[in-house]
Write a structure and sequence with these properties.
Layout lengths: L17 H28 L14 H91 L18 H11 L4 E2 L8 E2 L1 H10 L9 H4 L4 E2 L10 E4 L7 E7 L2 E7 L3 E6 L7 E4 L2
Parallel strand pairs: 1-2
Antiparallel strand pairs: 3-8, 4-5, 4-8, 5-6, 6-7
Helix pairs in contact: 2-3, 3-4
Length: about 280
Amino acid sequence: MSHTAHIPSHRKPRRRSASTMALRAGVAGGVLSTIAVAGSAGTANAEPVTETIEMPTVTSAGLAEAVTQAVETQRQAAFDRDLQAQEDAAAVQAEKAAKTAKAEAIRKAEAERAEEKKRQQAAERASRTAERTQLAATSADSGEGSASSSGSSSKASNRGESSSKASGSVATVISFLKAQVGDAYVMGATGPNSWDCSSLVQAAFRQVGVDLPRVSQDQSVAGRQVGTSNLKVGDILYWGNAGSAWHTGVYIGDGKYLDAANPRKGVVIQDLSGYPATGAVRVL
């Protein structure tokens, strides 16, 4: 042995054989390969963590019951809709029927009122006709008696003034006039159910044989002027100037007069204070 063999730095390195080194390299490589494969396998086979939801178990019987219940719900909803629609339609129909019934009732009531008015007018015309017939007969009898006693008729003079009459003449005139109350006013009409102002006055005095002019202007100068402060029943009233008057009527006493007033009023009795006359003439 060399005298420096025990000194490490002077030791000669051991030479490993090539087979030993190859063996060690192979073992190391195998271990690394095993570790790598194990890591890869572990990563590939790892399961992710998820939340688990439990689903209800559905059986055939449960499914059938659910379907049946859904169908029944839909059917009930459809029934409710149909019922509501029928109720709405019935309400609309009832409202229409009520309106129709009301309109029909109003129409019938108006027709009945119109018919009743016609009956009343017919009765009034019949009554007036009877009164006129009676007045005409009375006037005729009075005229015949006067003719037999005097031998002459009582007609107006050229100035339109009348001769003396029997005491009942004024009453006859007023009775005739009152029998026409309610008749219509129609311009130019001469009776028997419609008049204008002058035709009514003319017809009234004709009942006692006094022949008056046809129009208001001439009637306003057909007798003796008496003014309006000393009126007597039977005096002819006029509105406007004498000779150009535009309306006439007859004084019937108690501050009232009777005339064919206008289309709205017809033949009426009115208060003289409400529509004072301009003047008056007396023929009886």
